[in-house]
Amino acid sequence: MLLNVHAVLTPDEVRAARDVLAAAPWGDGRATAGTQSAQAKNNEQLPEDCEATRTVQQLLLRGLERHQLFFSAALPKQISPPLFNRYGGSANSFGNHVDSAVRYLRNGAGRVRTDISCTLFLSDPAEYDGGELMVEDTFGEHRVKLAAGDLVLYPGTSVHRVEPVTRGHRVASYFWIQSMVRSDEQRRLLFDMDNHLRHLRSNYGETDPGVIGLTSTYHNLLRMWLDV
Ligand code: NI
């Protein structure tokens, strides 16, 4: 499932993040690429352990925690610490690649299976030309360029790329999620059902017998498929 999640960060939080990132120590993105993706990768990124990274990570994780739609769609078991990249000038693109299946966390802090890939846009689309995230799936190719503060999540299995930025800079955060529900198909069903349930609750109230029954079915499906 490819899903746009609106307003993970407020405009004030985006501004605060951008201020920190503007003064941060950007470096060559190829430093952390695997051998295959190093051929395709041409951008800048922040070191994983600098102060700017830590500051904006906190901001972003708070935004994710309070976002109900994000939780319903991702059912996160573990979120890799968000990282930051910048495209522009001569370091302006990332060709077709697929993300590694496992993300090893720093200092032996564990591993995250990359069920879901996420990009959170921090630049306003008017600030730059190009820079679309292109995601391929069985329905074809999706072109994603979202408002600052919005996030896209898509299956970690997808081939994807970032188109060249031909004007301005595109600043974004990227991270991976290991979901409590490993299967994209099952996660999709649960997400749809949760959305329909929200709709039914607002129309018929929490105590409607059908609402209670379907809520029970949602949780029983979740229990059957869950890995906590
Ligand atoms: Ni990628």
CATH topology of the largest domain: Jelly Rolls
Structural class: alpha+beta
Ligands bound, unique: nickel (II) ion
Tell me the span between the first and last alpha carbons: 21 Å
Count the strands? 17
Task: Give a summary of the structure in a few sentences.
With 228 residues, this protein is of the alpha+beta class.
Question: Which features does this protein show?
Answer:
single chain; 228 residues; alpha+beta; Jelly Rolls; DNA Excision Repair, Uvrb, Chain A; 8-stranded antiparallel sheet; 5-stranded antiparallel sheet; 6 helices; binds nickel (II) ion
Topology of helices and strands:
Blueprint: E1 3-5, H1 11-22, E2 27-28, H2 35-40, E3 41-42, E4 44-45, H3 51-65, H4 68-74, E5 76-79, E6 83-87, E7 93-97, E8 102-104, E9 111-113, E10 116-121, E11 129-130, E12 133-137, E13 140-144, E14 151-155, E15 160-162, E16 165-167, E17 170-179, H5 184-204, H6 209-225
Antiparallel strand pairs: 1-14, 2-4, 3-7, 4-6, 5-17, 6-17, 7-15, 8-9, 10-14, 10-17, 11-16, 12-13, 12-15
Helix pairs in contact: 1-3, 5-6
The structure holds nickel (II) ion.
Describe this structure in words.
With 228 residues, the chain is α+β, with helices and mostly antiparallel strands. Helices cover 34% and strands 30% of the residues. It contains six helices and 17 strands. Strands 1, 2, 4, 5, 6, 10, 14 and 17 form an eight-stranded antiparallel beta sheet that branches. Strands 3-7-15-12-13 form a five-stranded antiparallel beta sheet. It has a two-stranded antiparallel sheet with strand order 8-9. β8 (102-104) and β9 form a beta hairpin. The model has no long low-confidence stretch (mean pLDDT 95). Residues 97, 99, 160 line the site of nickel (II) ion (NI).
